[in-house]
Amino acid sequence: MIKDVFNAEEGKTVKIRGWVYRHRVLGENKVFIVIRDSTGIIQCIVKKDVVSEKVWNNAVNLYIESYVEIEGIVRKDERAPGGIELKVSNIEPIWKGFPFPIQKDLSEEFLLDVRHLWLRSRKMQAIMKARHYIMDYLREFLNNQGFYEITPPMLTKAGAEGGSDMFEIDYFGKKAYLTQSSQLYAEVMIFSLEKVYTLAPCFRAEKSRTRKHLVEFWMLEPEMAFYNQEMNMQLQEELVRYVIKKMVKEHEEIFEVLGKDVDMHKSIDKKFPRLLYEEAVNKVNELGGKMKYGDDFGADEEALLTSVYDVPVFVTNFPKEIKAFYMEEDEKRPGTVLNDDLLAPKGHGEIIGGSERIWEYDKLIKRMKELNMNTKDYEWYLDLRRYGSVPHSGFGLGVERFVKYVLDLNHIRDAIPFPRTITRLEP
Ligand code: 4AD
Ligand code: MG
């Protein structure tokens, strides 16, 4: 692997295999080739006067993304990436292929058309590694706290979040929907396992064309028996801090490839500020926004509000009318619910939505009737309140929103390999 060459002694002959990442013929007698594999890149230099004619021709006639085997001598060179280059003695194309369609200065749209090839770029490679680690650390944190991972269905009979953004499908002649959230299934499992989480896709026919909406995204949904909203928020704060600190500590090189400075997370140990919904609305208005009590935060309002923080901020106690049916009302602040949205700083906005759930049967039925919900579709969910119900809370963290925030990406589509948006279902 390429990373091993960086640990090899100077003057040693090594053999590597990889894809041509850059290729430049310099004048009459030099070719610069940068080779990449999953572990890194290395500069290789071919000089006409020290190789056979066949090797020289092989070196000249490569394409970007040709797959090659190279033998060469390790040399220190300050100007090469990582301070090492290979002086090539042999180069063998294993798959020369065709001229690669991605060249310089291409539009975002084109890069999305050739996403299946663009995923080989250093930028996307770094982001996909980060996504892997982030998902791994999310699980690690919860597993260490005694949570069980459970796997929910994607095909459902009724929505978890309500609203008009459900994908309807034909299920053998009956209506079904792609899941909007796994929460209700996580709630089922707490009565067996007490602390559980799902890490699964969610589907929302979102019409919003913003930098933070996908039609298909992944959500982490922990659900905890006997947790109140305060414990719920503590857990969210600790989880977010754990993953960010571990990313910064173990993967500074990923931030470097992306041109980002890990210093952007230097305040992450600070306690996350908390605002009541009402205070957050006032703050948005102070900062030049226009919101009334009862409005939800749009992308612009979230950007305004979070522009003044360097750590995520909790907004709590939303009016119950703009939140989901299952949220418990706050007795101390009637008309508002025991919930939180966790908004990431610098305009990234909402990464988590969480709440205490209505756990008593009578209260839940009353709320569902107020909202004219068809309780028939939720009989099994109501059973959870009929038999051995207990207070509980949970939350949902959008994986791509979180990746976007951790790496400070410009657009959510880069946080997932194959983004699904209103206009894109391919590749
Ligand atoms: O706030 P939401 O809608 O909450 C729920 O679905 C709850 N059932 C979660 C729970 O309590 N178990 O979504 C949760 C998170 C959001 O904060 C956001 O990070 C992400 O999911 N999210 C999206 N991410 C990308 N594209 C979209 N269209 C998203 N919609 C929500
Ligand atoms: Mg939300």
What report would you give on this structure?
This protein has helices at 2-5, 53-60, 108-113, 115-118, 122-144, 183-193, 229-250, 252-257, 277-286, 299-306, 361-370, 379-386, 399-407; strands at 13-26, 30-37, 40-47, 67-76, 84-95, 148-149, 155-156, 168-171, 174-178, 195-203, 216-225, 274-276, 313-316, 339-344, 349-356, 392-398. The chain is α+β, with helices and mostly antiparallel strands. It folds into two domains: 2-95, Nucleic acid-binding proteins (OB fold (Dihydrolipoamide Acetyltransferase, E2P), Beta Barrel), CATH 2.40.50.140; 113-415, Bira Bifunctional Protein, Domain 2 (BirA Bifunctional Protein, domain 2), CATH 3.30.930.10. α5 crosses α13 (399-407). The radius of gyration is 26 Å and the shape is elongated. The two termini are 29 Å apart. It binds 4-amino-1,4-dioxobutan-2-aminium adenosine-5'-monophosphate and magnesium ion. 4-amino-1,4-dioxobutan-2-aminium adenosine-5'-monophosphate (4AD) binds at residues 160-161, 181, 183, 204, 206, 213-214, 217, 219, 221, 350-354, 394-396, 398, 400-401.
